[in-house]
Every structure is written in C-alpha cells, then in structure tokens.
Amino acid sequence: MKEASHGIGMEATWGGGGSPFAVSWRKLMMWFFIVGDALLFAGFLAAYGFARLASPQWPLRTEIFHLTFIAAMTFVLISSSATMATAVAAAQRGNRKDLLTFLLLTILGGLIFLGMQAYEWTSLIRQGARLSGNPWGVPDFSAYFFVITGFHGSHVLSGVIILSILALRTARGRSRAESPELAGLYWHFIDLVWVFIFTLFYLI
Amino acid sequence: MVGYKSYWYTWGALLILTLGMIEVGSAAIPGGVIAFLLILAMLTKATLIGSNFMHLRFEKLALILTVVIGILFTALALFLGIAPDGIRILSLGRH
C-alpha cells in the first residue's frame, strides 16, 4: 500500500511514473551521448561562424571545393542513413537476413564516404592547405576545415567500426535486440551533423 | 511498426532538399536571402532525419523536448553569445 502511494506520488511529479522517458537505460544513455556530442559540434561550428564574421575576407568556396563532389559525398551519407533505418526496421521485424544486408550496405556507404573525404583532404593538402596556413591567405579557413571535417570523419570511422562489429555479431546470431536501434541512432546523428557542416561550410 | 517505404520517402525528400540547396547556393539572389533559404532547408533536413530516421516522433514528449531544446537552445546561446563579438572585431578592423 505504501509502495503504491509512492508510485502515484512519482507519477504526479514526473508525469511519467518511474520512467519519465519510457526508454531503456541504454537508449537513454545513447540519447544523452548524442546531445553531448551535438553540443561539441555546435561549439566547433559556432567558433567557425565567429571566425568568419571576424575575418575581413574569406576564401571563395567555389574556387576551392568541387561542389558536385561534395554533393556526391552528401548523397552517399544520406543513402547510408536510409539503409541504416531500413536495417533497424528489419531488426524490429526479426528479419535477420534483411538486417544483415542493409547493415552491410550502410558500412559500404560509410567506407565510400571516408574514401571520398580522404580524396578531398589529399587534394587540398596538395594545393598547400595545412592546419596552420593555406595559399588562400586566411589561415583560419583550413584550420577550421581540417578540424571540423576531421572530427566528423573520425565519427564516421567509429560508426563503420561499430556497424562492422554489429554485423559480425548479427551474422553469428549474438547481437542484442536493441543494438541495431542504438547503432542506428549514432549513424543518423553522423548524417545529421553532416547536414550542418555541408550547409555552413560548403554552401554559405 | 514503420514500413521500409517511409524511410525511402524520407531519403527522397532529403535528396530533393539537398539538390535544391545546391541550386540556391549558386543562384543570383541577395546573400541574405540565400543564407535564410539554406538555413531553413538545413533545419528541415535535420527535422526529417531526427523525426523519421531517429524515430523521435514516436518517443515521449519529455525525451523530444530534452533532446531538441537541449541542443537548439545551447547551440543558439553559443552562437548569439559570440557572434556580436565577431561583428565588433570586424568593424574595429575597418577603422
């Protein structure tokens, strides 16, 4: 009786009983990690915005980046997000074959994106771009470019590793039921961050 | 349970928005209008990914508000906190 009244009290306080978010602790921790990581990228992009506003000149993006190539990178990442979402849906239906197929497609998308990013970096480095300076006269430009896209790329690499482990475990029938959804949240977050980088760095 | 198709509709919408953004980015219209349209499209894409791919629209309001307000408010505070200083430094350099 005492426990019951305690439960009612909690519900009145939280509006959600003992579990205000109604998700497992694993999923809640993944969301908290995503919020924290998003703030890290928000910090980077805010600092980049500050540098651009405070700089009297900024290199012309069309002279440095091949926008068609960047659009192709975006296409690959968006497509990998769609395959990841399909993999999660397959996991929820208990369809292990589809789950594995779409997981492998997502990994392939991640690897292609990383390859394209490596090509883009190599191209800029060959033109003389470094963390500390570049031929376009605004050292901040390449510093922000390498730090922000490098940090994002390291997230893609982590995602590919996580998905590869998940695919291996799925193939052996040893993955947890919730794992594809958690890995999916992380992968979509990587895509989400790219949406902001693509707009703020390559288009504006 | 969400069908596979809905994800591919979202994928199509994201693709169309991306192509539209590339067009707008190189259009012969004032820079302010370009920036406004691009940011609007960027936020629309972020909403599509968050709600459809990350399934936020199926979560409880408490989780949605924690995630969305937490990120948007802090990001906005970060930018609005330092952007005026950036503009001030730029104007100091011109004098």
Question: What would your notes on this structure say?
Answer:
Chain A has 204 residues and is an all-alpha fold. Chain A is 79% helix and 0% strand. Chain A is built from seven helices and no strands. In chain A, helix 2 runs antiparallel to helix 6, helix 2 runs parallel beside helix 7 and helix 6 packs antiparallel against helix 7. Chain A is elongated, with a radius of gyration of 21 Å. With 95 residues, chain B is mainly alpha-helical. Chain B has one domain. Chain B has three helices and no strands. In chain B, 17% of the residues are buried. The model of chain B has no long low-confidence stretch (mean pLDDT 87). At the A-B interface, helix 2, helix 4 and helix 7 of A face helix 1, helix 2 and helix 3 of B.
Low-confidence stretches of chain B: none
Number of domains of chain B: 1
Query: Which oligomerization state do the chains in this entry correspond to?
Result: heterodimer
Radius of gyration of chain A: 21 Å
Alpha-carbon distance between the termini of chain B?
62 Å
Output the radius of gyration of chain B: 18 Å
Q: How is the main sheet of chain B built?
A: none
